[in-house]
Amino acid sequence: RDSILTNREIEVVGLMAEGLTSRSIARKLEISHETVKVHRRRILKKAQVTSSIELIRKAIHYRWIYGSMAA
C-alpha cells in the first residue's frame, strides 16, 4: 500500500476507525497514551485534516485502511 503514513500510524488509524479511544489504542498496542496522542497529531497533520472523521474518510478513500480495519 502506498501511503504517507508509517505502518504504526496506519495501525492507529485502523483502530480509530474501529472506534477505539486513545487509551484503548495504547493498551492494545502496548504503548503509552501520550504516544498515541503524538501519533494522532502527526497523522492529522500528514493527512492535512482537522478531525478524526475527516481522517477516517480520507484513509478509506486512499486505501490506507480497508476491509476489517474500517469495519
Task: Describe the protein's topology.
Layout: H1 7-17, H2 22-29, H3 33-47, H4 52-61
The count of strands amounts to 0
Helix content: 55-70%
> What is the residue-averaged pLDDT?
90
Query: What are the secondary-structure elements, in order, as H or E?
Result: HHHH
Taken from the alpha-carbon principal axes, the silhouette is: globular
List the uncertain runs: none
N-to-C terminal Cα separation, in Å? Answer: 18 Å
Count, helices: 4
Backbone CA Rg: 11 Å
Category from helices, strands and their pairing:
mainly alpha
Residue share in β-strands: under 5%
Q: What is the subunit arrangement here?
A: single chain
Biggest pleated sheet: none
Descriptive labels:
single chain; mainly alpha
Short description:
By secondary structure, the protein is an all-alpha fold.
3D structure, described in words:
This protein is mostly helical and 71 residues long. The protein has four helices and no strands. The chain has helices at residues 7-17, 22-29, 33-47, 52-61. α1 (7-17) packs across α3 (33-47), α1 packs across α4 and α2 (22-29) crosses α3. It is globular. The chain starts with 6 loop residues before the first helix and ends in a 10-residue tail after the last helix. 25% of the residues are buried. The model has no long low-confidence stretch (mean pLDDT 90).
